[in-house]
Records
---
Amino acid sequence: MDKIKALVEEALKLAKKEGADAAEVVASMTQGFTANIRLGEVDTIEYHRDNGVDITVYRDNCQGSTSTTDISPQAIENAVKKACLIAKVTGADPCHGLADEKLLAKKYPNLDLNHPWGIDVPQAIELAKECEDAGRKFNPQITNSEGASVSTYDGKFIYGNTNNFVEGYASTRHSINCVLLAEGDHNKERDYEFSVARDAAELWTPKFIGEEAARKTIARLNGKKLSTRQTPVIFSPRVASGLLGNFIAAIRGSNIYRKSSFLLDALGHKIFPEFITIIEDPLIPKALGSAPFDHEGVATKKKNVIEKGILQNYVLDTYSARKLGLQTTGNSGGVHNLEIIPTAGNLDELLKKMGTGLLVTEVMGQGVNIVTGDYSRGASGFWIENGQIQYPVHEITIAGNLKDMFLNLVAAGNDVDKRGGILSGSLLLENMTVAGE
């Protein structure tokens, strides 16, 4: 960390020496490996060790940016000089510049993000084999595998600017995953399971991951098509997080000031039902989305994005905030541990509440228009009657408009999937169009 901090400080000094009014530097160093096996044999071993430095300078409201993976003193000096040259020929924009100095992080809570995993490649291979073996032996219908992998990552991140801010933190991320194929009477299906955590001690066991991958794959066999209809829909947690991602895209500052969102002028207005609250909490120890400050050094803090259904904040970095005449929300680089607060029980309870409808477990395609809110994606899942799964369904399309989908949310389950930066349980929607046969 000291080495990277010194590199950042030197780059900032060079920028001022070259005539920049202000400058900021982001430096990162990552290392780790991934062991991939398939059908019990080693497929690939991938080592990664990456360096990256992004340099941005400001001069007379003009901006110049460069990046380099070479962290030698000469390479850094060349990158700074090129950034300054770029700033001389770009157009001026009064919204360019560093974040307000009073918003920069002053305190750094211990978020417990750094847990190196003392595992070597042979050990990782054995864990991956154990995972795949558990899945392949789970049921004779598991006939093939796309493999299992064990991955470990160790990263160091430093941000500095010419407002005397140079800080950073170390973090880790480890994972195990397995992808299996099953064969039924008339078709083949694939599905997967994975576990990811800052601390390897909190990963699910390889046996559990493999068996869950097998169970999910077998459950998809011998699916049926549905006729076109209007029906209630439940998004499973791993699909629901994507739906919340669409919401975040619609309130991102860049889309708001460009007027390319269906939620223009929505601040202070009802977006969800009154019983829905969505929070962002960047300061959860060990969480995958946690960070003490954003990519501009702005202190992160817990806040309500939606409170009683009403939009409280856009998602802003410094530039987009200035374009809108607002203040940054500390979201340069994205959201941190965004979570919809549960209003109901687990998936089984939501199925009973829905009665008859569609449980969506996978979506495909890119059919989401953030400008209009139109939503249309290929999907698969299960048909539900009397609160019970009847049979898997495939080759269908679910469609609606995000504005209506958000307002027609009936319940948010407590089966929250915490394997990412956007956290959600199952979401029950009152009605969607399902296009099938």
---
Amino acid sequence: MKKKAQLYRMVTKKHICPYGLKSRDLLKRNNFEVEDHPLETREQTEQFKTQFNVNTTPQTFIDGQRIGGYEDLLDYFGKKNPKKEDGTTYQPVIAVFTVTFGLALAFSWHIDHSVQSLALLKFFIMISMSVLAILKLRDLYAFSNQFITYDLLAMRWVRYAYIYPFIEAIVGIGMIAQVGLWVLSPLSLFIGSVSALSVFKAVYVDKRDLKCACVGGNSNVPLGFVSLTENLMMVFMGLWILIEIQ
């Protein structure tokens, strides 16, 4: 026999509480029969909060005992709470490079129905640069705040932090299109070399514990080997293209 739970959540014409939906889903996945009580107006919500002396909704009750909100429900079922998982993570980097590698495979296959290792590597680097530029451009202000804490050029000339993502995007897109390579290759070499030296100094010489701005500002990706690899990829790509166009 299924256990029963009472769920009170906000469902108005202008706002449906996402945590209410997540709480309902979590209860059902744990074999609970949910007695759903949507609070359809602000007045109903405020009355409920006053009645039960709580500050937020949703609220879940099991066997007459108030469990609490969504995070409390996660704790009740012994589930991990993403909001409580502080510290560093490589998840954004894994997501970017997994998708860009898949796109590189798709591009390579589409062109001649084969997957040549050199062509695949070139596409992977160029697409990765373009996608990483998007993440930086999404919030230039936040990116600049993180970037200037370790980039040697941006420390001296703050405007470079605002220019850098545009250069990265132009280089990535231009190399895919094979346009203006005489200009784009030196640019790739320049920004990659400066960034690589900056990361190496900050992490391996100064031993600073920093977050990387490679996937945009406010990320929890640690500055280190992954960041250095990204920059060395740009250096490698710049050199490779220069050799090819000689």
